[in-house]
Each structure stands twice: as structure tokens, then as C-alpha cells.
Amino acid sequence: MSSAQSSPDPTTGAYDVVIVGAGFAGMYMLHRLRGLGFSARVYEQGGGVGGTWYWNRYPGARCDVESMQYSYSFSDELQQEWDWSERYAPQPEILKYANHVADRFDLRSDIQFNTRVERAAFDERANSWSVTTSDGKTVQAQFIVLATGCLSNARNPDIKGLENFKGAVYHTGNWPHESVDFTGLRVGLIGTGSSGIQSAPIIAEHAKHLTVFQRTANFSIPARNGALTDEERDAFRKNYPEIRRFAREVARNGIYAEQPDRGALDDSEDARRAKFKARWDRGGLTFMYVYNNLGLDLAANDSAANYVRGKITEIVKDSTTAKLLQPNSHPIGTKRICIDTDYFATFNRPNVSLVDIKTNPIQEITANAVRVAGADHEVDALVMATGFDAMTGSVAKIDISGRGGEMLNQKWAEGPKTYLGLMTAGFPNLFIITGPGSPSVLSNMIVSIEQHVDWIADCLVHMRKQGLATMEAGREAEEKWVAHVNEVAHGTLYPQANSWYMGANIPGKPRIFMPYIGGVGVYRRICDEVAAKGYEGFVTEAEVQSRRVVTG
Ligand code: NAP
Asked: pLDDT at position 364, please?
């Protein structure tokens, strides 16, 4: 186990690496770098570790990947010793786990909390990054790693009059640390993505009345959460080597589960219904993996979508509400599928109502109401479950300038461009963890985080051994990769939805399918092959001669 605090260079005060963010990516990156003898400094804007799990403290927040799999695999002692209590861990438990990891590997001494990285500028003469933080200080580092998270830039939409609302306004992605009590209050919830769908049932239990404002009806599958038994935990622990291998190399989404061997239309209608029922009864994300073509073939997709629409009709008693809750604007799964506990049944409660804001968008928020189609829905508090400027939002908040003073935001104005999602041309020695162009949000994030961190760690060791001063994405390799990411996405149904994968939730954001949909196993092999071929497609510069060569 590595621990000891990193010391900057005694003469220059420079670090080998600056890491931005102390979520699951930043913490593991720090741990790996220390073990390899690199000095590293982590800056974290929050007051503690955990990233997304530090900020998303809304009622009902829990992970939709099973706890035994949504956990680090790099330390066998850790995975053997940590006891997850439930099939899907609630947010406080995941945050506790993050804190446990920080303590266990003695990470905090290299993390500066409550500090935002505001600027990073590449100095071409020194071949190093100058990193300026919100405390007004600037440090130098040869490398910078953006571990800024994909769903970390919570966003309040621009709704007329929001500033006039007299009650409290909460955002699920930036929830207060103290407990919020909705008892006796009329609560308005705007947004019906994963966060809205998880929080609605819990808010409804406490509030006097809950009004859900729905723009796009969403597909949701029951979680079937429950306590994990010792036997279930032991079964995972005994089989961890195979489970982790399978998640990394075989499963497209980094989750160990039974893999589909056929398309939906290869089965008779009865057989299909039986399989959908079995998955629905089992619950969880793997509903989409009952067949191998639900993301590819619209007729196959319709069969799954119709099944879920039928379930909504069965659960929701009021037929008008049931109809409104049935998604009909996108194929199932093309917006991130939601996992819920009693979401649809919540609409059977007498204190819950649904307001359609697709047909009639919110006109205005007044001091005490949300006005829709001329009617005022009075509320005492508002919960915005309106999502994030995903994948690029937190990178864009940092002023990053590369070679020739080129600004990253300008380079990405037409959409993010990366080679392998790891680096972007013109910005040497800058790595992104689970960036656009990598499987990232389409996968079990921890699997993808560990893969990227390990790849970057190996790359830095390679550079040290070879005496390389810089490495960056080659322009041609980057263009080819961006084209490949696009081509693979457009062979699927995903681009048909106005999703945050496409940047569609942010007015003015370019419509590009950002993550790589080729699957984590395929992607890992590509990354490994590139490295094995001497980092093919990357451009390197040697330390002494300052000679630029295209490798591979
Ligand atoms: P989201 O999926 O982007 O949902 C945002 C919701 O707000 C959508 O219903 C959206 O409607 C609505 N909305 C946005 N702007 C609006 C406006 N101006 N007026 C009215 N409605 C508006 O955000 P999220 O629910 O926070 O989830 C984001 C992602 O985080 C998830 O997809 C998932 O990957 C992750 N997450 C995971 C978990 C988990 O592990 N269980 C939990 C929460 C989040 P439209 O659809 O019409 O845009």
C-alpha cells in the first residue's frame, strides 16, 4: 500500500501531476500515481471526497448499478472486507465508502478541498502546465488529469420568473448537507429523469402535496432493491476474479450479467413476453440486455417499450395519468433508462398529481406557484431534478489553454473532440478520465474509471522510461476516432432521442453523441493495442532534444 504525502520538486515547487477532482476517478488516480513514485496534488471543489456522491444527496438517491459491482476492484482486501448493505447502495453508504477509501489509502494529505481549478495553461517552453486555483495560487505540473466527472455540473434551466419564487429551491445535483424536511409542504418537482424518478416517491411520503411537472415521460424499471444477505455477498466475493474480468472484457456496459444470445424478434410473442416479465420481476438495468438488438432495431425496441408501457397502465389507476406517464417520444434505452422504487405507483397516492409541460410548457414561476396553461399550481418549495451539462460541462468551466494559446472551449465549440476520449490534440500532457469519446456514462463508471486510470498510469511510466517530455493526441488519429465514435453511434437508435448523451438538454449545445457506444471490452482492447504499438496516433516530444515525432 502506498501512502506518504507527495512532495513537490524542492527547487521549483512543481508537481509531476495535478489531478482535478477527488471523486472515484481522482482518488484512484492519486493512489496509482503515488504507488509509481509520481508526486501529485489533487484539487477538489467540494468539502470532501466522493464527487457525484458528495453532491447528489437528494431523497432517494442511490446507485442503479448493483453495489457489489459499483465498487473498486483494484484492491482485493477492500472488496473482500467492505460490507454493502443493500443490492443498490444508498448515497450515504457510497459516500461512506468513498471516505473509507480515502482513509484506508491515506489519500487526504494530497487533496486540497474547497478549491476549484480555474485556469490551466500549457507553457510550451517549459513543457508544463500552470494551474491556477480559486485560492489565488498557481502551481506547475508536467501533467494534468481532469477527473472532473461526467454528471457534475448541475444545471437550473432558464425558466421565466424562477428568481421571483419565495419558497426554497433545491437542485437534486447540489442538495444541502443538512436534512430537508418537506412535512406539511406543497412541493413542485420539475424533471423526470433518474433523479426525479428516484426522489418523487420519498418526497411524496412527507409532503402535503407533490406536483410533478413532466416534460418527457421516461422509461423506468423497478429496482427490486433489498438487503444483501451474507450468502449473496459471499457468492460475489468468491467469484470476484471472474466477475471483474467479465465486466471489463465481455459485458458491453461493464456489468456482469447474463448476456443475450438473440434478437427480440427471434422469439415468439409468448416467449418474448415471458423473458421481459422475468427481467421486469428481477429488476434493474439489465432489462435492456434481455435481447441483443434492443438498441439497434426499432421493431425489437418497440416490443420492449410496449411491454413497459403496458406495465405502467397496469400500475397507475387513473387512465389519463397512466397515458401521460407512458413514454412515446424516444425508443426505450436511448435516454438513460431509469431504475425506480414505486415511482409509477406514487401517482396513485391522493397527494400526488402530474402536470404535462410538454403540451403546455411552464409559462412562468410566480412567488408561490408554477403557471402552466394559465393555471397556477401553488407550491411552497421547488425541487429541480433538471440534470446536468453532461460530460463536457465541468471541463468547460475551467479556462484551459493549450499550444499557441488555443482555448479548449473554442476547440470544442462544435462538439468535443478527443482521441480515445483520453486526450485532445493541441493540449499536451492533459488527460481526461471517462471523457467524451470513451464508453464512460454508458457503462459501470467504476469499471471505466479504473481502465482509464490504469492506462494513464502506464502511459506516464512509459514516458518516464523513454524520457518523453510531452505526449498529445495526433490530429489525424483524433479525427479518425471522432468519426468512428459517430459512425458507431449512428448505427444504433441512440441518436434518435433528445438526450443528454447528445447534449440536447442544454440549449445551444452541439448535438453530438458524446460517449463511445462500442462497448467497454472492445474499447479496452483498442486502448491496449494503441499502447502496445508504442502509443500509436499520439505525438511525443523527447525531453532533451525537444524533437517532435509521431509514434507508431
Ligand atoms: P436528466 O436525466 O437530464 O433529467 C432531467 C429532467 O429534467 C428531464 O426530465 C428533463 O426533461 C427535465 N428538464 C430539463 N430542463 C427542463 C426544463 N427547462 N423544463 C422542464 N423540464 C426540464 O437528469 P437526472 O435525472 O439528474 O439524471 C442524469 C443522469 O445522472 C442519469 O441519466 C444517470 O446517468 C445519472 N443518475 C444516476 C442515478 C442512479 O444511479 N440511480 C441517479 C440519478 C442520476 P427532458 O427529458 O424533456 O429534457
From this structure: 97
Instruction: Please name which of 17, 33, 55 lies closest in space to residue 171, comparing C-alpha atoms.
Output: 55
Task: Establish if 103 belongs to a structural domain.
Answer: yes
Which grid cell sits at 267? Answer: 422469439
Distance of CA 368 to the CA centre of its chain: 34
Give dist(CA 372, CA 153) in Å, integer. Answer: 28
Rounded average pLDDT over 178-185: 96
The answer as to whether 422 is a domain residue is: yes
Phi, psi dihedrals of residue 160, rounded to the nearest 5° = -55, 130
Clarify whether residues 403 and 532 are in a common domain. yes
Residue 218's Cβ-count burial label (10 Å; 0-12, 13-18, 19+) is: buried
CA distance 318 to 45: 45
* pLDDT reported for residue 4: 61
Nearest-atom number in ligand 1 for the CA of 339 is 41
Summarised one tens digit per residue, pLDDT across range 375-384 is 999 999 999 9
Domain residue limits at 161 = 155-218+335-387
CATH number at residue 369: 3.50.50.60
User: Domain total for the chain?
Assistant: 2
Q: Is 500 in the pocket of ligand 1 (CB under 6 A)?
A: yes
Residues 429 and 478 in one domain: yes
| Best residue among 52, 194, 212, 324 to mutate for probing ligand 1, ranked by most atoms within 8 Å of CB | 194
> Is residue 507 in some structural domain?
yes
> How many whole angstroms separate alpha carbon 24 and alpha carbon 449?
8
DSSP sequence for 112-160? E-S--EEEEEEETTTTEEEEEETTS-EEEEEEEEE---SS--B-----T
- Is 267 exposed, middle or buried, given 0-12, 13-18 or 19+ CB atoms closer than 10 A? middle
Q: What is the CA radius of gyration of the chain?
A: 24
State the Cα–Cα distance between residues 339 and 323, nearest whole angstrom. 20
In a domain, 82, yes or no: yes
Residue 364 is which amino acid?
A: E
Among protein residues, the one whose CA lies closest to atom 35 of ligand 1: 194
Q: Do 59 and 185 meet the contact criterion of CB atoms below 8 Å apart?
A: no
